[in-house]
Structures are given as C-alpha cells and as structure tokens.
Amino acid sequence: MHPIERLRYVARASGAGHDVLVRETASALATFIDDPAGMVTACRRVVARQPTSGPIWWLTSRVLTAPDPMREAWDAVEEFENDTTVRELAHAIEPDLTVTVLGWPELVASALVRRGDLAALVVDVLGEGSGLVRRLTFADDDAEAVDVPVAGLGAAVAESDLVLLEASAIGPEAFLSIAGSRAAAATARSCGVPVWLVGGAGRLMPARVWEGLVARLDVDEPWDADDEVVPLDLVDRIVGAHGPEPVADALRRTDCPVAPELFKEL
After folding, report:
1. Domains of the chain, each with CATH number or no CATH
2. I need a surface site. Which of 17, 161, 179, 224 has the fewest CB within 10 A?
3. Residue 251 in contact with residue 95, Cβ under 8 Å?
4. SS3 133
5. Which secondary-structure segment (H or E) carries 240?
C-alpha cells in the first residue's frame, strides 16, 4: 500500500483497535520525515478522522513536539504495545466476582479472557456485547458470561460486585467511553457498587488536549452518539500500568504533551 493510501486508511478506519491505529499511524507518518509541513497536516488529518481516540492524540502530540519525530513515534508505539494495564487489571480483580462491562472494551476483554473465575454480565451496547460473550465462552467452556440487552443495564449493574468501564480518553474531570457508561456509573454509585475505569497507555490527557478532543465531538444529538463524556466523580479507581489507583493519583501520570498545531482545523 502506498504510504499516502496508508494514511487515508488510518484516518478513515472505524472499528479498528487503538493498537492498530497507533501502529499504522506511526508507519504512515514515517513517510513525512523530510516534510515537516506535511507531517503537521498528516497529524491533523488523522486526529480529525479519529477525534475520540486518546492514543492518537497522544501519539501525534508526541511526534509534533519531539526533536526527533520518528524516533518519538516508534518509542510511543513500543510503549503502547508493552503496556501492562491488562496484566495489572487481571491481577487486581478479586476471584469469584460478578462484573458488568459494556460492549467489547479491548483491555477489559483481554483481562477477562485471562481470568476464568469471574462471572461477566456483558451489556450489548452498539451490538458488540454478544460477540464478547462468544469470545469469552470460546476461550473457556466453563466461563460465566451473560449477554445482557441494553434495557437490562441497570439491573445488571445492581447485581454486580464491580463495574468495569474502559476509557478512550481521560481528562482532568471527565472521561470518554462507550455510550451507556454514564448510566452504568451513576447506577453503580446509587447501589454502592465500585466502578473501575480502565485507561491504559496514551489515554491520560492534560486539560488543553482534553478540551481539543471534546471540541471535536458531535454533540448535536448526544443520545445517538457511540461515545459519551462521563464525570470522573462517578469513578472509584483508575486502572493503568500501575494497577488500580485513586483518581487523583492516576491523573498525575499524564504524559501527553500539548501540540498547538493539532488544535487548528484542516
């Protein structure tokens, strides 16, 4: 594939995992190593097409603020691929719990596959939950995984010991996650069920970058959006490479620089 076509693929891809987007974006940006102006335009284009991906903002911000952009890009890819969040999450959850998850969250799903002693109530948000149930039961015939319709979200949360939400980006006071996350977190709070927010590499945003990301969201009809902004005060712990931490402690680990060039529209 021609490098420019690769960039277009990355920019337009929908449904691709963050790991694929980060790796493919770095590969595409490598072609602009001798074209600084083209590099800026390329980063803006990817962000414009993937505005809800915290890792893409993180990667492009690092590239545009680094003295050696491509070394920084591949350092970021290595850091992203070596992220230990899944391992820490799988280790931190106590055995024999019932957990509620929404849709098919990448990191959470990987942690659940590693564990065979958890009962998962998987809410079928965006039609993704049933696929995760099949994946979990395929990995372990004895796995307890229930396909919950969206209408049963509240009931599932109330019957859980823990709610696991996954963020695509985390700001100073809120996070972006799949639709239904706010209802799940609010219901959990009212029922006394703890909520863990799984972040992972590239998702903790400083205020300026978070504001730029939120400004790109289509909020004309938020009830039809695939993602929604949820207040962090509904979260008990943020889980990253250092395991579950109090929200304030986790936010101190923000490592995304601010690249003013990204905030200009194409």
Report:
1. 3-82 (1.20.120), 85-251 (3.40.50.10470)
2. 224
3. no
4. helix
5. strand 237-240
pLDDT single digits (tens) 68-110: 999 999 999 999 999 999 999 999 999 999 999 999 999 999 9
- Using CA of residue 16, residue 19, residue 25, residue 27, what is the dihedral sign? negative
Phi, psi angle pair for 118, to nearest 5°:
-115, 145
pLDDT score for 28:
87
Burial of 245 (0-12, 13-18, 19+ CB in 10 A): middle
Q: List alpha helices for 115-263, DSSP H.
A: 129-139, 153-158, 181-191, 207-215, 247-251
What one-letter code names the amino acid at 101? V
Mean pLDDT value of segment 165-183: 97
In the block, tokens 């006071």 appear at 173
Q: Output the CA torsion 210→26→244→207 (10° steps).
A: -10
- Residue 255 corresponds to which tokens in the numbers above? 């490592």
Alpha-carbon distance values, 262 to 20, 162, 179, 244 (Å): 21, 37, 26, 31
| Placement of tokens 């372990």 in the chain | 140
* Interacting residues of 1 by C-beta distance below 8 A, sequence separation 6+: 9
* CA-to-CA separations, 125 to 37, 48, 227, 232, in angstroms, rounded: 40, 25, 11, 21
Sign of the Cα torsion 12, 103, 214, 81 reads negative
Distance CA 76, CA 55 (A): 10
Q: What are phi and psi of 165, to 5 degrees?
A: -110, 150
